Amino acid sequence: AQSVAQPEDQVNVAEGNPLTVKCTYSVSGNPYLFWYVQYPNRGLQFLLKYITGDNLVKGSYGFEAEFNKSQTSFHLKKPSALVSDSALYFCAVTDMDDYKLSFGAGTTVTVRA
Amino acid sequence: SQTIHQWPATLVQPVGSPLSLECTVEGTSNPNLYWYRQAAGRGLQLLFYSVGIGQISSEVPQNLSASRPQDRQFILSSKKLLLSDSGFYLCAWGFGAPPEAFFGQGTRLTVV
Predict the structure, then answer these.
(1) Which residues, other chains included, contact B84 with Cβ-Cβ below 8 Å and sequence gap of 6+?
(2) pLDDT tens per residue across span A6-62
(3) Could you tell me the residue ranges of all domains in chain B?
């Protein structure tokens, strides 16, 4: 079975400060990890993914995520947050043989001006 | 390029009425298709997925069913809606395993 935990329901940061959204995972095989963002009443937008290779993955809108196998984590980061980054962020995991993504409960990010 | 269409955007239905939500994908062939439900604006629950025409896997037994009558068409249905069926329904498509899912804009269903 695969699962994802996003330990923080909410993250609040000031504009211009670094942003981190935490994610830990559990999967039986090699993990394949994803981050999505959702704006109110909209579908999810893909941000980035880790399949293999470099542990630091760069994605859309200046976001990046670091895969840490020993800590089973895949935290999302942005060096300088914008007010427009305020949204709901989802981490997801699957393994190579699965057609399904398992999503975390989501973290609401609020960036204040 | 590939696009996914999901409609309607919002729907208000009385308890006991039927439901049909439709999702279509353009610009690709034989995609994996998914229906998710998001309750209270938070976590996503996978309801159904399909890896081919007529092949439906159900993740959570409930008052809903899904069908894939054509390669790029995925339909979510109910014969009789319950209040608990209210939520935000998201269709998604992806390729192979592991999948990278691409989502539609969602349908906000309110059962009254």
Answers:
(1) B63, B111
(2) 999 999 999 999 999 999 999 888 899 999 999 988 889 999 999 888 899 999 999
(3) 3-111
Q: What is the 3-state secondary structure (H, E, C) of chain A?
A: CCEEECCCCEEEEECCCCEEECCEEECCCCEEEEEEEECCCCCEEEEEEECCCCCEEECHHHCEEEEECCCCEEEEEECCCCHHHCEEEEEEEEECCCCCCEECCCEEEEEEC
Query: Mind listing the domains of chain A with CATH numbers?
Result: 3-112 (2.60.40.10)
A48-91 tens-digit pLDDT: 999 888 899 999 999 999 999 999 999 999 999 999 999 999 99
B43:A100 CB<8 A? no
Start-to-end C-alpha separation, chain B: 38
A8 touches chain B (CB under 8 A): no
Q: Alpha-carbon distance B14 to B30, whole Å?
A: 35
Q: Establish if B107 touches chain A: CB-CB under 8 angstroms.
A: no
Higher-confidence position of A78 and B1: A78
Two structure tokens written together for A76: 């999302």
Q: How far is B108 from chain A (nearest CA, A)?
A: 8
Class in CATH terms, B3-111:
mainly beta
Residue in A88, A101, A104 closest to B99 by CB? A101
